[in-house]
Specification:
With about 325 residues, the chain is of the alpha/beta class. The chain has eleven helices and ten strands.
């Protein structure tokens, strides 16, 4: 009888062990990747490039789902409230970590408490642009001189209140002593026609959104917000070269999951992102789309957030922006 009990116990333990092993084989079904911004925008385009790379690395479909609204908070909150099993992930730009907490009076999630930052995924510079048909400036110095002399100041467009585009614009004009009026749109796709029709004088927004229109010659690029010139558009001067020092600002993004995401899954995903970023063809696709592929450990992603939080807080306060 004792031998029979031992035999049955061993068989049961083996079965449980096998079930646990099967459950632990991550991933063994499709993964949802929530993009917190609309389809067709810079974040969406780069998210889809990342998703293709992750699919190759993980061996499972990675399905992009756009859930936009409230400056990305709706989509990121959906990730924060999901089950921490690695099957609901998201891409979260810098705003959702270190801008929105200072911008919104009520946040549906706490980026430190409710999210796991698995890895940085890409960074995108902002580029300062004008429509040459309406703004007679070929350089930043010419533009600022024109802007100071313009009755009533300049009108600038952005993809929304509190975005890096809004904060960068306010920083630039306050430093230069230029009177300005902010016109927020839903996305850069709406700002561009307004500029080409002369309703908006200026924009400084993600290169990913403006690269095509610059290359077509319909807009003049005055400066880019990176420390070095951008590889695919080396003709654009850095802001420092354009006469605006201490203006290195990039909009980075991270692969996120909910809090409590198990360490083995974090490591699996961080390794997958690292391999995606190491692929020369994928890196080129990111560059062509206006972004630069990144990869970090979860600790590295958190360190970047902690480092930049004071800077973005200051920029939000300087802008005076506040959202309900």
């Amino acid at each position: 009888m004792l031998s029979r009990r031992l035999l049955l116990g061993s068989a049961g333990a083996a079965a449980l062990s096998g079930a646990a092993s099967a459950q632990g084989a991550y991933p063994n079904r499709p993964v949802r990747l929530i993009c917190p911004y609309p389809a067709g925008g810079a974040t969406d385009v780069l998210t889809r490039i990342l998703a293709e790379g992750l699919r190759e690395q993980l061996g499972q479909p990675v399905v992009v789902e756009n859930r936009s609204g409230a400056g990305g908070n709706i989509g990121v909150d959906a990730v924060a409230k999901s089950t921490p099993d690695g099957y609901v992930l998201g891409t979260a730009p810098v705003g959702n970590f270190v801008i929105n907490p200072f911008l919104y009076r009520d946040m549906p999630y706490d980026p430190v408490r409710d999210l796991t930052a698995v890895s940085l995924t890409w960074e995108v510079p902002n580029v300062a642009v004008v429509a040459g048909k309406f703004v007679p400036a070929k350089s930043m110095s010419e533009f600022l001189a024109w802007a100071k002399a313009k009755p009533g100041g300049v009108v600038y467009g952005t993809s929304g209140v509190g975005t890096s585009a809004h904060l960068c614009s306010e920083l630039l004009f306050k430093r230069a002593g230029v009177a300005c009026t902010h016109v927020p749109f839903r996305s850069a796709a709406q700002v561009i026609p307004a500029m080409l029709s002369g309703d908006v004088d200026f924009a400084i927004d993600n290169l990913a959104s403006y690269a095509g229109i610059i290359q077509q010659g319909q807009m003049t690029a005055l400066g880019i917000t990176t420390a070095q010139r951008w590889p695919t558009m080396p003709e654009i001067p850095t802001m420092a070269e354009a006469g605006v020092p201490d203006f290195v600002v990039t909009a980075w993004s991270a692969l996120i999951g909910p809090a409590g995401l198990p360490a083995p899954i974090q490591e699996r995903l961080a390794t997958a992102v690292k391999n995606v970023a190491a692929d020369a063809a994928v890196r080129q696709r990111f560059l062509t789309a206006g972004g630069q592929a990144l990869a970090t450990t979860p600790a590295g992603a958190r360190a970047r957030m902690d480092q930049e939080r004071p800077m973005w807080k200051e920029m939000v306060e300087l802008s005076g922006a506040r959202m309900e």
